[in-house]
Design brief:
Layout lengths: L2 E6 L5 H10 L7 E8 L2 E8 L2 H4 L2 H6 L4 E7 L14 E3 L5 E9 L2 H12 L8 H14 L8 H14 L2 E9 L3 E6 L8 E7 L2 E7 L2 H6 L3 E5 L4 E6 L4 E5 L11 H6 L5 E2 L2 E2 H19 L7 E4 L5 H11 L2 E2 L3 E3 L12 H11 E3 L8 E6 L6 H12 L4 E6 L27 H8 L3 E4 L2 H9 L11 H4 L9 H11 L1 H20 L1
Parallel strand pairs: 16-17, 16-20, 20-21, 21-22
Antiparallel strand pairs: 1-4, 1-10, 2-3, 2-4, 5-6, 6-7, 7-8, 8-12, 9-10, 9-11, 12-13, 14-15, 18-19
Length: 503
C-alpha cells in the first residue's frame, strides 16, 4: 500500500507533486520521495518520514523541471530504511526512475535472472527495484539510441510477461516522458487526469482519483488492467493495452480500508461502497439478532464511520460519536510492532464517557486484522461505563495474508485465522461479534460497477487471483512479515547507522 504520482506540465511540477503526495499520505507514512527532470538533469530527494518532514524549502528549490514522479511508502516486508525509499533510479539505458505500489510475487526469481543474464546488481530488498531493472532490461534490449513511444509499450508488454503479482507504477525516462502502467489483473489502483492551461495540456497520474481532483485536474479514467499510458515531455498522451489476457480483479480491501472515501476506483465510489457495507451489515444483524438490545451505535474513527451511519439508521438505533481522534498519530495498521500499535491506540483515541455510561454499545469498524486495536478500544468502552460492548466488522474475517502489496501480517498474527466468530469475540473481549458475509461485501462494492466480475478477495478466502501462490511462498512471506522479523531488521539497520556514524 504505497502512493504514486507522475506529472507532465508546462511549469515546474515540484509543488504539484508535493501536494499530491500529501493527499496520498494515508497510503504510506514510512518514506517519501520525488524526482524531477530539467534541462538534461534529474533532481532527486527522498528519505524516511512524512512528506512534510522529507521536503524542506531547500529541497523544493532544487527540484526543478516540468515533469517528475513521486512516492509515499510503507514497507510490506523490507525495513524502514532510506535506502528503500522511492523513486529508484538506473542510469542505463537512458536514465530511468520508477515508483511502484504493489508486490511482485516472483521477485526472487527475477533478481536471479537479472544478475545471471545481465550482471545487474540490486542494492535493496525492494521488489520495486526489481521491477525497475526488468523494465530497464527490456528497453536496453532494443539497442536504440532514440526511443519511440511504441518501444516503451513493447517493453511494458515484456514486463507483463515476466512479472507476476500486483503492481501499479509510474516511471520517468529522462528527457522523453512519463510512463504509467498496471498489472494485467488490475489489482492495485492507478488513474490519470488532465487539465488545459494557456500553454497547453497537462497530465497527472496518481494512485487515487482524489489526488487528481484535489490538484484541479479532471479525472479521465483509471488505467485498465494491463494497459500502459505514456506522456511525452511536451504533453502528448499515448495509450496501449500491453497484456495478452487482461482481466479486472481489483483488490477489494482498497474499498474496505485503504483508499480515501472521496476516491473513485474503477468507477466505484469508495464512500458509496462503504455506505452499502453498513446497510448489508445491518441486514445481517436484523436476520441473526432480531431481538438485539443495542442502545447506541458508535463508530471507530475514521474508516468505521461511513458504514456505521447507515447501519444505525437501518437498525433504528441512535448514532453517536463516542471517540475523539488525535489526528497527529499515524494509522496503527501500518505501525511496526505490536507494542507500538497497542500503545498508540489510547494516544490516538479518547472516549466520551457520556455516550457509553450504562448503555449497550455497538462499536463499528472497517475490519479486524490483528485484533489488538479492537481489544484496546473495547476495553476503553468498558472503562467509560458501557454496560455491554458489541462489535461489528464491515469486512469478513481476515484469515490469510495479502501478497499483492498490503502489509497483512503473518498468518499466526491474524486473529481470525483458524478461529470461530465466538472465539474471536472472547479474545478481543466483546460480548458478541458480527462479521460481514463475504458475498455481501462483494455485492456492496460491485453495485458501483457491475462490469467487474471478480475481485481479489485473498485476505478473506485464501484464493489468489494470479494463481501462482504456493505454500512455500506463503511461508516465505510469513518469515518476512512477522513482528519479530521486522524488529530484527530494524535493529540491524540501527547497527548499520551506528557503524556509519563511528567511521
Amino acid at each position: 500500500m504505497c502512493g504514486i504520482i507522475g506529472v507532465v506540465a508546462k511549469q515546474f511540477v515540484n509543488q504539484t507533486i508535493y501536494d499530491g503526495l500529501t493527499v496520498l499520505q494515508h497510503r504510506g507514512q514510512d518514506a517519501a520521495g520525488m524526482v524531477t527532470y530539467h534541462e538534461g538533469r534529474l533532481y532527486l530527494r527522498k528519505n524516511t518520514g512524512m512528506v512534510r518532514d522529507v521536503f524542506h524549502t531547500r529541497h523544493m528549490l532544487n527540484l526543478k523541471g516540468n515533469m517528475g514522479i513521486g512516492h509515499v511508502r510503507y514497507p510490506t516486508a523490507g525495513c524502514s530504511s532510506s535506502a528503500e525509499a522511492q523513486p529508484f533510479y538506473v542510469n542505463s539505458p537512458y536514465g530511468i526512475t520508477l515508483a511502484h505500489n504493489g508486490n511482485l510475487t516472483n521477485s526472487e526469481e527475477l533478481k536471479e535472472d537479472l544478475f545471471r543474464d545481465d550482471l545487474r546488481h540490486l542494492n535493496t530488498d525492494s521488489d520495486s527495484e526489481v521491477l525497475l531493472n526488468v523494465l530497464a532490461r527490456e528497453l536496453q534490449r532494443l539497442g536504440k539510441l532514440r526511443l519511440e513511444v511504441n518501444d516503451v509499450f513493447d517493453a511494458v508488454s515484456k514486463v507483463h510477461q515476466r512479472c507476476r503479482g500486483g503492481y501499479a507504477a509510474v516511471a520517468m525516462i529522462t528527457g522523453f516522458g512519463i510512463l504509467g502502467f498496471r498489472d494485467p489483473n488490475g489489482i492495485r489502483p492507478i488513474a490519470f487526469g488532465e487539465r488545459t492551461t494557456d500553454k497547453g495540456k497537462e497530465y497527472l497520474i496518481a494512485s487515487e482519483s482524489v489526488a487528481i481532483e484535489a490538484l484541479d485536474y479532471n479525472l479521465i479514467r483509471d488505467i485498465e488492467p494491463g494497459e500502459a499510458i505514456f506522456i511525452t515531455k511536451d504533453g502528448q498522451l499515448h495509450t496501449r493495452q500491453c497484456a495478452e489476457h487482461p482481466k479486472y480483479s481489483p483488490c477489494i480491501f482498497e474499498y474496505v480500508y485503504l483508499a480515501r472515501p472521496d476516491s473513485i476506483i474503477d468507477n466505484i465510489a469508495v464512500y458509496k461502497a462503504r455506505l452499502r457495507m453498513g446497510e448489508k451489515l445491518a441486514e445481517k444483524i436484523l436476520r441473526t439478532r432480531p431481538d438485539h438490545d443495542i442502545n447506541v451505535v458508535i463508530p471507530i474513527p475514521d474508516t468505521g464511520r461511513t458504514a456505521a451511519i447507515p447501519l444505525a439508521r437501518k437498525l433504528n438505533v441512535k448514532y453517536r460519536e463516542g471517540f475523539i481522534k488525535n489526528r497527529y498519530i499515524p494509522r496503527t495498521f501500518i505501525m511496526p510492532g505490536q507494542a507500538v500499535r497497542k500503545r498508540s491506540v489510547r494516544q490516538k483515541l479518547n472516549a466520551i464517557g457520556l455516550e457509553f455510561k450504562g448503555k449497550n454499545v455497538l462499536l463499528v469498524d472497517d475490519s479486524i486484522v490483528r485484533g489488538n486495536t479492537s481489544s484496546e478500544i473495547i476495553q476503553m468502552a468498558r472503562d467509560a461505563g458501557a454496560r455491554k460492548v458489541y462489535f461489528a466488522s464491515a469486512a469478513p474475517p481476515v484469515c490469510y495474508p495479502n501478497v499483492y502489496g498490503i502489509d497483512m501480517p503473518s498468518v499466526n498474527e491474524l486473529i481470525a485465522h483458524n478461529k470461530t466468530e465466538e472465539e474471536v469475540a472472547r479474545v478481543i473481549g466483546a460480548d458478541w461479534l458480527i462479521y460481514q458475509d463475504l458475498d455481501q461485501l462483494v455485492a456492496a462494492v460491485r453495485k458501483g460497477n457491475p462490469k467487474i466480475k471478480e475481485f481479489d478477495l485473498s485476505c478473506f478466502n485464501g484464493k489468489y487471483v494470479t494463481g501462482d501462490i504456493s505454500e512455500d511462498y506463503l511461508h516465505h512471506i510469513e518469515e518476512m512479515r512477522n513482528d519479530n522479523a521486522k524488529l530484527e531488521r530494524e535493529e540491524n539497520e540501527e547497527n548499520l547507522i551506528d557503524l556509519s556514524n563511528s567511521i
